[in-house]
Every structure is written in C-alpha cells, then in structure tokens.
Amino acid sequence: MNPNSQPVEGAGEFNLIRRLHGLLNDYASPELCVDIGDDAAAYRTHGNRVQVVTTDALIEGYHFDLGFYTMEDIGYKAMAVNVSDIAAMNAKPRFATVALAIPGSLLIDQIECLYGGLRICADTHGIQIVGGDTTRSPVIMLSVTVIGEVEERDLVRRSGGKAGDLLCVTGTVGAAALGLHLLRRETESGPGAIKLAEEARSHVAHRHLRPEPRTDIVEDWKTRGVRPNAMIDISDGLAADVHQLCAASGCGAVVRRPALPVAEEMRIVAQALAADPLTYALGGGDDYELLFAASANTCRTLDPASYTVIGELTAERGLILLEDADGTVLPLSRAGHDHFASKD
Amino acid sequence: MNPNSQPVEGAGEFNLIRRLHGLLNDYASPELCVDIGDDAAAYRTHGNRVQVVTTDALIEGYHFDLGFYTMEDIGYKAMAVNVSDIAAMNAKPRFATVALAIPGSLLIDQIECLYGGLRICADTHGIQIVGGDTTRSPVIMLSVTVIGEVEERDLVRRSGGKAGDLLCVTGTVGAAALGLHLLRRETESGPGAIKLAEEARSHVAHRHLRPEPRTDIVEDWKTRGVRPNAMIDISDGLAADVHQLCAASGCGAVVRRPALPVAEEMRIVAQALAADPLTYALGGGDDYELLFAASANTCRTLDPASYTVIGELTAERGLILLEDADGTVLPLSRAGHDHFASKD
After folding, report:
1. B contacts of A335 (beta carbons < 8 Å)
2. Which residues pair with A148 in a beta bridge?
3. CB pairs under 8 A between A and B
4. Lowest mean pLDDT: which of A45-49, A327-331, B203-207, B307-311?
C-alpha cells in the first residue's frame, strides 16, 4: 500500500507535518531571514514601502463543496482570494502564512494536493509561503494571510473615488457565480444531464474554482506609472462592491447595464440554464476582478483591452443607480436587484 | 429582549460583522496607513528592522473545551499563543489579523466576549488588530496572525545555540498542563469534588486559560542590550522544545531534573491530584515561557529573578539527557519521559 494513501490519523503526525511544510516552500527570497521551522518567519523590508496584510479563511460546506472542488482547487482558491485583496490595494504580494485544520480521516495524498494548490497560486504570483500551522478539526478549514508591499504613494484605498471618475472593471463579471450554479446543478442532476459545449462549461467552472487575481493589471499600471483613485476587488458581487467603494469614497454612482462585460462562454451557459447573465454579473460575486474609479485622463493611458468602463461616480452620496439600454434609471441594491422592493 | 442575546443567525449579518470589527480596534498607531475596512490593512516599517510573522489556529474540541473555557479565554489565548511565538524571536509584536469562524447559533454577546478576549491580550502587548474575517463553520475556529518587528541583529533563532551555553527557562513550567488536567477532572467529577485551596486552583487554571507571553523579558533584554544565542517558546512541552532547539542548533543538552522551576501552587495541586509535578514540567506544554540558550557571561547580566538555569547545551548532536538529583543520567524523550522505552 502506498503510504501516502493512508489517513493522516496515526501516520506519525509530527514528522508528517514537517514533511508537508517542506512542500510549501523550496526557494528562499533574498529578503527572507528566517524561514518555516522556527517560532516565526522573518523578512527584511524596503524602507520606502508600506506593508499590506490581509487574512481570509475558507471553510468546508460554506465556501467550498467537496462534491465538485478538488483538494488542489481548495488550496488554490484559499490563496487566490487573499492575493486579490492585496492586488486591490495596488500592492505586490510577497509572503504568506497558512493555518490548515483538517479531519484526521483525510488521506496524506489529499493533503499534499491541497498544499499543491496553495503552491500553484503562490508561485504564479511570486509569493513565498513562510509559515504554517496544521491542526485537526471536524471539517477542512484553511486560513491564509498574505503580506504585500507597495510604495506608499501608490497605495490605492476604497476611499479615493471622486464624482466624475469613470467606474471600471477588469476582465468579465458573473461567470464565477454562474459557474457555481452550474456545478451545483450538475451535482444534483448527475453527469451529462445538462448539455453544454465543453469550452463554455469549463470557462464558467474555472472562473469559480480557479479565480485569477489581477496582479498582472497592477504590474502593468506600475510600468505605465499610473494608479486609479479608488479600488476594491469584486468578491461580494459587482453591485455590493460598487456600494462599498461609494460608501468609502462618500459619493454615488451610475452603472450602465449594457456596458457590463460578460464573457461569450457565460452567455452560452446562462442560456442553457435559462438564467439571466446580467443578474449574475451584478449580484454574483467571487469574480476576483478589480473594480476601480479613475479619471478619464488616467483611463486613456491604460491598455484599452484590460478594462471596461461600466459607469461613473456621481456627487450624491449613497445614491447608486442602474441605467438600462432604454435610458430608464432605477436604484441598484447591494444584492444587484434594480428595483425598490429589494432589501439591502 | 436584549438584541445582543440573539444568535448571529438572522441578526443582519453584514452590519453585525462590521460592528464587531469595530470592537477589535479603536486606536490607530502612527505607522498604520490603512485600517480595518479596506481590502487589506497597510502599515509603514522602519528601514533597519525586519518583520516577523506567525500564524496559529485554535479549534473547538481540539485546543479548547467549551466546558471550562469562557469565550473571553478563547479569544485571549488565540492571540497569546501567537504573541509568544513573536517573543521567541526576540521581537516586539505590532499588528494582528484574525480569521474567526463560528456556528450561526452563537449569541452576539458570546462573540463580543470572544473579541473582548482578543483585545485584552492585544492591548496588553501593544498590538493593533488590523484585519479580520468572520465566517460560518460547524465549530469555533480562530486563526490569528501576528506581525512583529526587531532590529535584524537582535533576531534570535532556534539555531544559534552552542555547546557550553547555559540552558534557561523564564518563569515556571508545568502548571498549564496540570491546570488542564484539573479542569478536566473538575468537569467530570462536578464542582467541589476536588478539595483545593482556591489560590492554588486558580493559579494552575489561569496558567492554562490565560498564558502570559513573555514580551516583558524581551523588552528587559533590549534595555540591557543583551540577547540569547537561541530561543524557542515552550508550547509543546519543555522536553519537546529542548529537542527542537537542540535539533536546530546541531547540539545536545543535559537537563537537571532538580533545577526545573515549578510553582508552589502547582505542587499543592499535583499533590491533591496524586500527580508528579515534574512529569507535567517536562512533558506538559502550553507554558508559553521562553526556553533559551546563552553564555554564562550573558546570563550574569540578566535579572536573576527572571530566569532559571536548567542545564546546558552539549556537543553531541541529538543526545538529550536528563540528570537526576543522585547524578543518574538517562536519555530524555521528546514526550518528557526519562527512559529508553518511550517512543519519540
């Protein structure tokens, strides 16, 4: 029997955990003074930069479903959601720590896959995992902390938006939430029950399971020497995140429904599921794209392929409107509904 | 009905969590650029210092028992175990993030007490809580990350010990583990079944529930301009931590059983429970005192009341011995047993 196909339980836990931590980390950045294996990790900083720190946890049954998440997906996503928060500050992620709590019945192979997913995302974004804690729990819980760096003058808060700024998003929105809907429907109805082109299916599933935080955009802006006035990552849903950015910036916004960037693959899946793509685009969440406010002048210096203008910031604090193709304008709730009846 | 005596479930979760995060934080250190409420927190660093980071999680049923831990104890201890790791690097804790996962049935009052415990420990050690994530889970899980700072030349690793160094501990050891044993026995046998002087009882219970990380010692050393060669905090048990320090330093050690510092209150409780205090002192764990190795010259410059010499480091790598009052010397296992039969 392959020793890695054993449950953690009784597999010599102390040495196992030491070995697993070895998987997290096999190179050392020059700034690192003390790596995994001491009481804490230690690293040098650059004098003119600020440190940016965020923590998010994923819990089995609440944030992911073992029915359609692989262990690698779970590890990947736990890292990705934190990387996205660092990108939303216009910062570069550098170091991460991981607290993993697992049932003793989990196989060593499974835990290695989970660590593998953490590593894939960390390596993609140039992050070194410098600390880890592994303990037991009744369900899988994965809490990741990511620390990033940015020149203080380049830091972008949620609060810097001004009336007249263009409101923009990177990439497309809604596919992640529609992907979750599809994955759940497939689980309920069995394989093959929902007929879909594989390309469309895998696009929305991937958007949910393997979100790609936009550190590429942040790097591109740095190269161009520009920064937006305000920014937030789209995790709660576009409408909710517009509300949050406006609340922090003390302004309002108008969002134009026809401008919302939706992927063609997503439209195909929405049609197959008889779902409205724009409902998912506004209320869905889990996109991990960037929502930002920038002056028209700043926007002109950006790569036009990298973002879509979806509206603008307005002066009346807290008034968030959705404008339709025919010019109709209605309040937009946090949940993404465009009517008065919806509850915030 | 007091609205705080409601379960979290259905209490308007979004606003509740925002309010709770307000409890974490009501002052701002001058280094803080972005506080709780944005995608991530941001803080300035001092150019000549290194950043020290650690993460540890506490899980209900594994690390604490709701039978005898109050919510405040849980919050306090989750912070304390991380502060202790920062102290063990000879660093000063500065900032913390908290990922809390809770069952929806928990009362708002209870969560406020838990946050209160986090704050008590954070405030005691001058730590600002700069980030938080609150989610649902079937049991309480609390993952804390603490970031500290230290001048690079003052950083103390586990690996700096040299043969001939004195092996020392701060405070006393064993009471925390004996306290856990007592708390469990009391839970099983009902209140009042174990007759004990209140002072002795509360000493060992407090050592388990409210460990006091030794940032005071680290500050005192800084004032005196001294540092040990190697250090680790005593979390796994004195014997296990001697093994770890020696493994990292590439040496061995001899520990003198009669030298182990044990509190008088602990002896009283041990007698009442027919337990051997030295078994708890060597194998117990959860002490959160500092185990350090320093030259005799360095030790002479320390406050003699602040530490006890328990033995010394020796040249033979991996040979950890326990010497008895009569001069008998036997190998000391990680688990704290002093015989060959014990399994590492």
Report:
1. none
2. A52, A93
3. 208
4. A45-49
| Length reported for chain A | 344
Please answer whether residues B203 and B209 qualify as being in contact, where contact means their C-beta atoms are separated by less than 8 angstroms: no
Q: Which two tokens stand for residue A124?
A: 């993609």
Would the pLDDT of B120 be above 60? yes
Q: Model confidence over A40-54: pLDDT tens digits?
A: 988 888 777 899 999
In order of B87, B154, B296, the CA distances from B221 in angstroms are 11, 10, 15
CB A61 within 8 A of CB B138: yes
Q: For the whole model, what pTM was predicted?
A: 0.93
Residue B49: predicted pLDDT: 87
Q: What is the pLDDT of residue A7?
A: 76
* A95 contacts B53? CB cut-off 8 A: yes
Q: How many residues would you count in chain B?
A: 344
Measured between CA atoms, how close is B146 to chain A, in angstroms? 9
Task: Please state the ipTM of this predicted complex.
Answer: 0.91
Residue of A42, A56, A139 lying closest to B52 (CB–CB) = A42
Contacts of B47 in chain A (CB under 8 A): 45-47
Contact B98 A55 (CB under 8 A): yes
3-state per-residue secondary structure call for chain A:
CCHHHCECCCCCHHHHHHHHHHHCCCCCCCCEEECECECCEEEECCCCEEEEEEEEEEEECCCECCCCCCHHHHHHHHHHHHHHHHHCCCCEEEEEEEEEEECCCCEHHHHHHHHHHHHHHHHHCCCEEEEEEEEECCCCEEEEEEEEEEEHHHCCCHHHCCCCCEEEEECCCCHHHHHHHHHHHHHHHCCCCCCCCHHHHHHHHHHHHCCCCCHHHHHHHHHHCCCCCEEEECCCCHHHHHHHHHHHHCCEEEEEHHHCCCCHHHHHHHHHCCCCHHHHHHHCCCCCCEEEEECHHHHHCCCHHHEEEEEEEECCCCCEEEECCCCCEEECCCCCCCCCCCCC
- Three-state DSSP at A41 gives strand
Model confidence pLDDT, tens digit, residues B248-275: 999 999 999 999 999 999 999 999 999 9
Flag whether pLDDT at B14 surpasses 60. no
Locate B46 and state its tokens: 């001092």
| Shortest CA distance from B334: residue in chain A | A14
Look at residue A317 and tell me whether its pLDDT is greater than 90: yes
pLDDT value at position A190?
A: 80
Q: In angstroms, what separates the C-alpha of B65 from chain A's closest C-alpha? A: 13
Closest Cβ opposite residue B62 in set A50, A85, A135: A135
Contact B97 A53 (CB under 8 A): yes
Query: In this model, does residue B3 exceed pLDDT 70?
Result: no
Work out the minimum CA distance from A325 to partner chain B, whole angstroms: 32
Average pLDDT over residues B307-326: 96
pLDDT on residue A19 = 67
Cβ contacts (< 8 Å) between A42 and chain B: which residues? 50-53, 89, 91, 150, 155
Q: What HEC string does A57-119 produce?
A: EEEECCCECCCCCCHHHHHHHHHHHHHHHHHCCCCEEEEEEEEEEECCCCEHHHHHHHHHHHH
What pLDDT, in 10s, does the model give residues A186-235?
Answer: 999 887 788 899 999 999 999 999 999 999 999 999 999 999 999 999 99
Judged by CB atoms closer than 8 Å, whether chains meet at A57 and B135 is answered as yes
Per-residue pLDDT, averaged over B72-85, amounts to 98
Q: Do B99 and A56 touch (CB under 8 A)?
A: yes
- Would you give the DSSP letter of residue A28? -
